[in-house]
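To assess whether the prediction recovers the assembly geometry, we first specified each molecular entity separately, as shown.
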Amino acid sequence: MSIILEARDLTKYYGRDLAVDNLNLTLEKGQIIGLLGPNGSGKTTFIKMINGLLTPTSGMILINGEKPGVNSKKVISYLPERCALPDWMKVKELVKMYGDFFTDFSYDKARTMLSDLHLDENKPYKTLSKGNREKVQLILAMSRQAELYCLDEPIGGVDPAARDYILRTILQNYNEEAAVLISTHLIQDVESTLDRALFLKEGQIVLNDTVDNIREQRGKSVDALFREVFAC
Amino acid sequence: MWEFTDDKPIYLQLTEQMCLRIANGTYKPGEKFPSVRDVATEAGVNPNTVQRAFSELERSGIVCAQRTAGRFITEDSDMIYKLRENLAKEHADNYLKKMASLGYSRNEAADFLSKVKEEL
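The predicted structure of the complete assembly is given in tokenized form:
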């Protein structure tokens, strides 16, 4: 399988605070990867560097062999942890904006998902509930035919039924030419959908293995292992 | 319905649950087997994990892959009979182990089973 992302000695300081510590990692296409770690472990910082929103203090990150830029933005579909959409727009206007911006955007997919989740396209985004806003953002991100989906906490704010739908959508969209990186605390919910789990602790990767290897070798779920590794 | 426990690899649990469906006739001999994508979406499981479970079933011969047409359940009724018997043996083993932990001998456990059967 071909490599979509490579991080080499990736390090990020905020002033004196070390957020990402000498991280080395490669991600292959055709995998769904969980980026798991407690609050403040560097997940969002890492994702922001992938998307070129933060520049590394040292080391580098490569998408298809290139530093983040115009080319990487064409192939990465990014769901930010906080909303970055103009909230005065109606849902259908947001869909149109995404369609205009991204050549890989599918209106059909977006419409299907909007109707499956009972979202009204004619409503202004800012009148939607918090959960429904998150659903709209996810729909926009998943309607692209990207090579890397970076989903920062995609299921944190939605109800369990919508959570199931979202995970099914990710599975339905699965193809060998794309990788999906999901950061979340809700390990139990995503565990069976993942190929691989990455544990991030204080900016370092402390575990990088497939879900079934973890279960086979340790006789416990990734969720149980997480609770052990990050016990407070 | 697909349900998974925490203590075992997911691909193994998928293999087991598919064997159960073949043994109890939910999936019939010679029938077309569902696709990876269908099972992945229905069970909420990673497609590569489903693929691994399918490969296990193919290796055992219970499911046969045909190059273009997909996968089919074996028509070999002996094989399915044996599969069913093996699964039944596992249940019986478990029963005997649990009864042993209560201090029942194998014979006592067997007698107990027939007693319960008469009561029902």
